[in-house]
Design brief:
Blueprint lengths: L3 H12 L3 E6 L6 H14 L3 E4 L9 H11 L4 E3 L13 E7 L5 H18 L2 E9 L7 H6 L9 H13 L4 E5 L10 H8 L6 E4 L5 H10 L3 E4 L1 H5 L3 H10 L6
Parallel strand pairs: 1-2, 1-8, 2-3, 3-4, 4-5, 5-6, 6-7, 7-8
Helix pairs in contact: 2-3, 2-10, 6-7, 8-10
């Protein structure tokens, strides 16, 4: 099984180098928008693209990824909301298991159904413990998953959930407040989780200011993901990337 990008993420964590990721929802971009995002991302030295969403209703996924890949060498990692969101044109797939919920379909059920197709895709598969954190507003992922998010003031629950995910074999831990969250994940929770796991920690949802991205990295985040804020203001790519990359190595 391929491990190139996972090993890169693990090495960056070991060295204390923080990464910035732009999340692209295929439903919300056209060819012109993708071209603009890629140009800005290259100038800002964005580390990764995540492509996907909780509810992708267009047939634009393959085309979206192919356009990105043809325009730059930034790795494209699938962030799927369902088994149908798999494209062989990407570099890797976050194989998400919703460990913060109790919906068996999203813990293992959909994985069983998608396994043959995912295996055949040739993608690098990265087992990812996905944790939804309450961001102060109902989100698509909470509705689709039929699972309650972890309260944002329950640091110990988040910590134990992440630890359990890592111990059952998850290579990455992804904490997400969800698209359109009114408030991002508190840095106290990020720090609590980060100090108790060794897996690279991905943080997303509700991050609308570069300062918050910087603070999250200082608290222990290894990868910052921003999507919704960039959809509204693409100029944030440069500022967000600069903030994340300005965190002192080893911080």
């Amino acid at each position: 099984m391929k491990q190139e990008l996972y090993l890169q993420l693990a090495e960056r964590k070991k060295l204390g180098r923080k990464s910035f990721t732009v999340l692209i929802d295929p439903d919300k971009v056209d060819n012109k928008k993708i071209e603009q995002l890629v140009t800005l991302a290259m100038d800002a030295k964005v580390d990764y693209f995540f492509v996907g969403g909780s509810l992708v209703i267009s047939n634009h996924l393959d085309e979206c990824i192919q356009q990105i890949k043809a325009s730059c060498d930034i790795p494209v990692i699938l962030f799927p909301g369902s088994p149908s969101q798999v494209s062989r044109y990407a570099d890797a797939l976050l194989y998400l298991s919703l460990i913060s919920g109790r919906n068996p379909e999203l813990l293992i059920g959909q994985h069983v159904v998608s396994a043959p197709f995912v295996k055949k895709s040739g993608l690098e598969i990265m087992p990812t413990g996905y944790m939804v954190i309450d961001g102060g507003a109902p989100t698509t992922v909470s509705y689709i998953s039929n699972a309650s998010p972890i309260p944002s003031d329950k640091n110990e629950i988040a910590m134990c959930t992440a630890m359990a995910g890592e111990m059952i074999g998850m290579k990455l831990i992804y904490m997400d407040a969800g698209s359109g969250a009114k408030r991002p994940i508190p840095e106290e929770m990020i720090n609590k989780v980060a100090t108790h796991i060794e897996a690279p920690l991905i943080i997303g949802g509700g991050i609308v200011e570069p300062e918050k991205a910087y603070i999250n990295c200082k608290a222990g985040a290894d990868v910052i993901v921003v999507g919704n804020a960039i959809e509204k203001d693409t100029s944030l790519i440069k500022e967000m990337a600069a903030a994340v990359h300005s965190v002192p190595v080893g911080a």
